[in-house]
Amino acid sequence: MAWTYLFFAGIFEIGWAIGLKYTDGFTKPMPTILTIASMIVSLGLLGLALKTLPVGTAYAIWTGIGTVGTAMLGIWLLGEPATALRLACIGLIVSGIVGLKLVA
């Protein structure tokens, strides 16, 4: 169950990272509320995952999911560049996440 918590914690981290862009400096009420709610859920789920998973592994995977998801949504939603080098670096992060999961 801890891995499920961790996965969804990462998904909600993507939500708040992308949400920050839409808050316009916390001046838009609805995106701000959703972003803060996503932060709370993400940290809460991470906390549940940490009850049984090693902190270094869980934290690295949580931030990795957030990093990869945020970078991909930045490309898809916000028109950020999708250069070969950028995509290769994202691939390296994914391989690190998979590696950590395999050795945990």
From TrEMBL:
Annotated localization: Cell membrane
InterPro entries, per the entry: EmrE-like, Small_drug/metabolite_transptr, Small_multidrug_res
Pfam families xrefs: Multi_Drug_Res
A GO cellular-component term linked to this record: plasma membrane
Keyword Membrane in record: yes
Swiss-Prot/TrEMBL keywords: Cell membrane, Membrane, Transmembrane, Transmembrane helix, Transport
Segments traversing the membrane: 33-50, 57-78, 84-103
Family: Belongs to the drug/metabolite transporter (DMT) superfamily. Small multidrug resistance (SMR) (TC 2.A.7.1) family. Gdx/SugE subfamily.
Designated name of the protein: Guanidinium exporter
Lineage of the organism: Bacteria, Pseudomonadati, Pseudomonadota, Alphaproteobacteria, Hyphomicrobiales
Gene name as annotated: sugE
